[in-house]
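Lecture notes, continued. The same structure-token format from the folding unit now serves as the input rather than the output. Read the line below as a description of shape only.
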């Protein structure tokens, strides 16, 4: 069972714990995230991905060309190019997400329209379409749903279920879960495991 108290014990700040208890409970119930270990792994990963449930939308506001080049070297190929995208998140999203993940070209606006949202960032039109079908939500026509607490929780739980992460949680395969959630970068792998272990105590 997910309560405000055990979310706080798992490391979530009180304001977010109160805001997310009900939508998390509904999403976890729908997708059988229903044991202390499963809940802890899910909340731990979501907590790292969303800065402890405070960031439900991808931040594409970069203040230097150098940082843009470092993050997106294959799609922004020069500092001169990057300078045009500095402090312009919409243009940056349309550039770096064009012609991939089901998005159309840069001029279509799909990159910005289907930028990362949710506790586990749903990104790209094809992923919004899949989640829309799986959840029976109008995510393609109204992608902002994924940046609201209920939608953020439900899309994250749908991703968790679709990628069979309950099975990995049952056998404590924390690195494999991180790879499924974060990809080859495996960012903050040790923190994800730490959050999960903290959560196991909190939800038990």
């Amino acid at each position: 069972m997910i309560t405000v108290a055990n979310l706080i014990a798992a490391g979530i700040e009180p304001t977010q714990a109160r805001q997310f208890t009900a939508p998390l409970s509904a999403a976890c119930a729908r997708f059988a995230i229903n044991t202390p270990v499963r809940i802890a792994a899910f909340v731990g990963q979501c907590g790292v991905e969303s800065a402890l449930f405070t960031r439900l939308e991808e931040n594409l506001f970069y203040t230097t060309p150098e940082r843009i080049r470092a993050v997106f070297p294959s799609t922004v190929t020069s500092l001169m190019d990057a300078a045009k995208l500095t402090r312009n998140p919409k243009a940056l999203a349309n550039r770096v997400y064009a012609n991939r993940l089901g998005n159309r070209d840069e001029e279509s606006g799909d990159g910005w329209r289907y930028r990362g949202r949710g506790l586990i960032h749903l990104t790209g039109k094809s992923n919004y379409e899949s989640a829309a079908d799986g959840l029976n939500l109008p995510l393609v026509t109204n992608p902002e749903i994924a940046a609201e607490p209920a939608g953020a929780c439900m899309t994250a739980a749908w991703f968790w279920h679709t990628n069979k992460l309950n099975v990995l949680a049952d056998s404590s395969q924390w690195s494999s879960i991180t790879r499924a959630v974060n990809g080859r970068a495996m960012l903050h792998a040790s923190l994800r495991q730490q959050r999960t272990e903290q959560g196991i105590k909190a939800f038990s």
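Point for the exam: The two ends are 9 Å apart (CA to CA).
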